[in-house]
Amino acid sequence: MAAAATDLAGVQSVLSAANSAAAGLTMAVMAAGADEVSALIAGLLDAHARAYQALSAQALVFHDQFVQMLNAGASSYAAAEAANASPLQVVQNLGQNVLAAVNAPTQAVLGRPLIGDGANGSPNTGADGGAGGLLYGNGGNGGSGGLAQAGGNGGAAGLIGNGGSGGAGGADFAGTSGGMGGTGGWLWGNGGSGGGGGVGTTTTGGTGGAGGNAMGLFGNGGIGGAGGVGQNTTGTGGNGGAGGNAALLGFAGAGGVGGLGGATGGQGGNAALFGNGGDGGVGGWGVLAAAGGKGGDAIGLFGQGGAGGTGGAAVGAGNHGGNGGDGGTGAIIGNGGDGGAAGTSIGQSASGGNGGNARLLGNGGDGGPGIFGGAGGTGGQGGTLAGVPGAAGPS
Q1: What whole-number distance in Å separates Cα of residue 168 and Cα of residue 238?
Q2: How far apart are CA 72 and CA 79, in angstroms?
Q3: pLDDT in tens, 25-42
Q4: DSSP code for 318
Q5: Where are the alpha helices (H) located in the chain, listed in sequence order?
Q6: pLDDT at 60 over 80
Q7: pLDDT of 67 over the 70 cut
Q8: pLDDT tens digits along 324-369
């Protein structure tokens, strides 16, 4: 608004100068001759010029008033903005001071705040993530590992909050492990995901970090980290990390994928009172492909067993794919998990995983399919009170 007022004031100056220049040329015009008609025409032109100058003067007065109103509005707006910003800043500063005062006692005694997220570990240090606030706050993420250094573990949450993710492992001759995911809150919160295993430059890739457990009433287990890549001719990949276990009410985490180069997929986490077991991780690809991970069990009242992971695919002709992982056991009321399928290959057999069993009420899981003549998995048993067995997997 202030800029617009300045521009309009400039327009006023230009118009005023133009009117002044026109006044000398249009007012007091001499008659073309001594006759009455010429005198009449000159008088008419002079009258029009004087009327124009009077009207222009009124317009300039209005223009000046309008510019003054714009300047006043701009000043009022700026003052209102300043007045509004000041209380907000005061409130913000007050909130920060109050939070610092609340956190000071627990920080001094227990080394963690009452409210607030934990600090993240710095990259390439393998430092663990900081713990979240005792009352509310997420755990910090673990730092990635440097050369030949394991990834840092994720920080734990307090009462309410999610666990931090584990950091990725660093590269080495044999890759280092990924960090474990932090545990979820005691009342509510999910476990953090595990960090990926590091690359193995000459031999085996690092193992993926386990997913964090959900420790409280509500929450899901964290996903296991993927295994690291192994050396491409003689090395093997790292195993996938296990999925985290669920809280009383929640789903378990899936196992991590096995590393490239052939490594077993991680086992799915177990569920508690209400919830499904986590699925097993897929086996790693490689010349010697690995099996899929076992599905997690539902060990409580309601829930399905996790499905077994698919076997790893074979790289190159004449090599076997990995076997499928077995399905997890169902809860007291719930079905068993299906067995994982055999990994693909070129002309070589591999077996499917077995279906998981039901317990009291529920159906058994179906067996996973085999490949190229490999046996299909056996179907899981039905519940002892009610339920049908799972179907056997095709060969």
Answers
A1: 13
A2: 11
A3: 555 555 555 666 566 666
A4: T
A5: 2-26, 36-110
A6: no
A7: no
A8: 899 999 999 999 999 999 888 877 888 999 999 999 999 999 999 9
What is the C-alpha separation between 245 and 270, in angstroms, rounded?
A: 5
- Tokens encoding 40: 């009449």
> Would you state the structure tokens that stand for residue 147, as one six-digit string?
């050369």
List residues bridging with 115 in a β-sheet: 136
Query: pLDDT-based confidence at 106, cuts 50/70/90?
Result: confident
Question: CB neighbours (10 Å) of residue 380?
Answer: 31
Classify 66 as helix, strand or coil.
Answer: helix
The CATH code belonging to domain 2-103 is 1.10.287.850
Q: Where in the chain is the domain with CATH 1.10.287.850?
A: 2-103
Q: Which of 346, 320, 345, 338 is nearest to 376 (CA)?
A: 338
Token pair of 101 as six digits: 């005062």
What is the rounded CA–CA span in Å between residue 29 and residue 47?
A: 10
123 close to 142: Cβ distance less than 8 angstroms: no
Handedness of CA 352, 196, 194, 137 (dihedral sign): negative
Residues paired with residue 188 on neighbouring β-strands, in sequence order:
160, 218
Residue whose pair of structure tokens reads 């430059």 in the numeric block = 201
Amino acid at 6: T
Upper half-sphere CA count for residue 151 (Cβ side, 13 Å):
39
Question: What's the average model confidence in pLDDT over 306-315?
Answer: 87
- pLDDT for the residue 233: 46
In whole angstroms, give the CA distance from residue 365 to residue 226: 26
Q: Which pLDDT score, from 0 to 100, does residue 163 have?
A: 94
